[in-house]
Design a protein that fits this description.
This protein has 235 residues and is of the alpha+beta class. It contains five helices and 14 strands. It has two domains: 60 residues, no CATH class; 158 residues, Aminopeptidase. Functions in the N-end rule pathway of protein degradation where it conjugates Leu from its aminoacyl-tRNA to the N-termini of proteins containing an N-terminal aspartate or glutamate. This is Aspartate/glutamate leucyltransferase.
């Protein structure tokens, strides 16, 4: 069984950064042949690794350290006025846990989301093959939280249960419901889910100060940032 001391890592060649224009990025991947278990996955998350499909990765760029891992300590989190308003506004949404999103209903929502919100991204155009590979359930710890309005699917949160928290892998939702701020609501729902499971954190991936797409993460306080291999709390 693999552990941190024996784990092999592989680095990509420098490539154009997806977040900062004009920057080059290098990504480190965990050996795809490694035997990943929930304990090892938790340790890697604590070191700043993320999951995409069956792969665990972390940015490791030579000239840039803009990508900062962040997590919400859920027991200390207090919703601000905007977040409380979001919860109240979406009080008519019901949440359901499912272990399978390989359905026409789920994929159709995902495809609409990518087509309307991410036409310039790597996931466009959407395909069923890419959807399955990207959001696959790994190592028996992935949960899918459905957001339903009067029975209609309007959002899905993909999250992994770690030893110390939930890792928010990806969220997609009905893009035509902008007034509901479903992305914000999805994070708040995962915070409450982690609390109910007596877990400590919700891992949000990477915060990049100079990237507008990532600025929303700094709105959840307190927030812990992984700086020089130490988690620092931002109140």
């Amino acid at each position: 069984m693999s552990d941190l001391s024996t784990l092999k890592l592989f680095a990509t060649q420098p490539h154009p950064c997806s977040y900062l224009e004009g920057q080059e990025a290098t990504t480190v991947f965990v050996d795809p042949a490694a035997d990943i278990n929930p304990s090892l996955y938790t340790q890697l998350s604590q070191l700043g690794f993320r999951r995409s499909g069956a792969h665990l990765y972390r940015p490791q760029c030579l000239r840039c350290q803009a990508c900062v891992s962040c997590r919400i300590p859920v027991r200390l989190f207090k919703a601000n006025r905007s977040q409380r308003r979001c919860l109240q506004q979406n009080s008519d949404i019901s949440l359901h846990i499912t272990d399978n999103i390989n359905t026409e209903e789920h994929y159709a929502l995902y495809a609409r989301y990518i087509e309307s919100r991410h036409q310039s991204g790597d996931m466009y155009p959407p395909s069923l093959e890419q959807y399955t590979a990207f959001l696959t359930s790994e190592w028996g710890i992935t949960q899918f939280i459905e957001l339903r309005l009067a029975g209609t699917l309007i959002g899905v949160c993909v999250c992994d249960q770690l030893g110390d928290g939930l890792s928010a892998v990806y969220t997609f939702y009905e893009a035509g419901l902008e007034q509901r701020s479903l992305g914000k609501f999805a994070i708040l729902a995962q915070i409450e889910k982690a609390r109910s499971m007596n877990l400590d954190y919700v891992y949000l991936g990477y915060w990049i100060k100079e990237c507008d797409k990532m600025k929303y993460k700094i709105q959840y306080r307190p927030l812990e940032l992984l700086i020089n291999r130490r988690w620092m709390r931002l109140n």
